[in-house]
Amino acid sequence: MDNILEVKNLKTYFNLTAGVARAVDDVSFAIKKGGSFGLVGESGCGKSVTALSMLRLIQPPGEIAGGEILFDGKNTLGMADEEMRLLRGDKMSMIFQEPMTSLNPVFNVGYQLTESMILHLGLNKKEARDRAIEMLTLVGIPAPERRVDDYPNQLSGGMRQRVMIAMALSCNPALLIADEPTTALDVTIEGQILELINDLKEKLGMAMLLITHDLGIIAENVDDVAVMYAGKIIEYSSVDNVLSCPKHPYTIGLLQSLPSLNSSDKKKKERLSTIKGVVPHLLNLPDGCRFKNRCSLRSAVCDEPPPYKNVGDNHFARCHKV
């Protein structure tokens, strides 16, 4: 299967007064056409910055310092601003983390939905409004003919997230980027939103990049996954490989920290396993392996940068110990 997107050696840095923060540092991965890919890691590891780099939405003091982002074989980093603007929201679209801050409070839902349709699809106002109602119906919003004129503050959190999904899908993108699409939603609504995204993905035949810190969500919703830590991908393979046979100590620690509903009564009373320490500050990264100060397997060799190697069955890990 061909790839819709290839990220090669991407570097996105923030040039701050105190120094250079390497938020995304030599990151590479690929997403197949119609496939689903997960990017998982703790807050601040570089997941969202990677997504914004893909859409060329990095603002100063940030800059894309190197690498390639190939969308359908064409490097978007070499595109003119106008060409990238036409690609963004049309062929590549994104669901942002916080619908209340991503939706403009002074415009109604219909205006915000039709804006991109008029730009990218060439529809007139009536055609765009009809399609907006159609999209609200598609994402399961009741009474869409009335809701299309509502403002964001008139909608619940779950309905605002559905509006964001409708906006992202309105131009039939080839790639949907979903950045923590269930943030701040309760568990019931979270399940409904993820089910909706997957149903629409299959119906429309699009590829998806799902960004989250939740391994449970990753397990249920993607084919391949990359684990990020302090700006680097430290493990990358099929979701089955990573979850059933993790190689990197960080991934192993994440999986061991998950609670289990099937544990024995004795084990349920024990404290959950944790990863000691904290993620290093991007302005004060350790030499060598970025995880070494929290790793139980640390030795002198970890003071050198670990190789990123294939440990079998297209399973890659960045560690001296595997």
Can you describe this structure in just a few lines?
The protein has 322 residues and is of the alpha/beta class. Helices cover 33% and strands 25% of the residues. The protein is built from 12 helices and 12 strands.
What descriptive keywords fit this protein?
single chain, 322 residues, alpha/beta, eight-stranded mixed β-sheet, four-stranded antiparallel β-sheet, 12 helices, 12 strands, globular
Task: Summarize the helices and strands and which ones pair or pack.
Elements: E1 3-16, E2 19-32, E3 36-40, H1 47-54, E4 62-71, E5 74-75, H2 81-87, E6 92-95, H3 99-102, H4 109-121, H5 125-138, H6 144-147, H7 157-169, E7 175-179, H8 187-204, E8 207-212, H9 215-221, E9 224-229, E10 232-238, H10 239-244, H11 249-256, H12 265-268, E11 308-310, E12 316-318
Parallel strand pairs: 3-8, 3-9, 6-7, 7-8
Antiparallel strand pairs: 1-2, 1-4, 4-5, 9-10, 10-12, 11-12
Helix pairs in contact: 4-5, 5-7, 7-8
